[in-house]
Amino acid sequence: MKYVLMFVDSEQHTKDWEAKTEDERQELFDKVEKWLADHAPQIVHATRLQDGDTATTVRLDRGEPIVTDGPFVEGKEVISGYVEVEVADLDEALALAKSWPSCPIVEIRPAL
Asked: I need a labelling partner for 49 at 20 to 30 A (CA). Which of 10, 32, 38, 105 fits?
């Protein structure tokens, strides 16, 4: 079964990241790379997204498309990347999400 694990950054996570030294940042990058390598057989696709302020959003307003800059909602959390995984079931997807070493929130959704 395919699931998408969406990695969500928070304002606090971003502040903590900015306060880290280069060595601390590299250590976290290394943990993420190891996680990706360890789970490579299950990963169908993965990508990191540019910051939320680079988003362009199309909203339907009374049936008319309205284009705006920025994410679809103002918030303190933004999806920063995702992986699509092929796993046996939700329990296996949960195990992957629980072992993610970076962003503080991982949203899991089944893919069609």
From this structure: 38
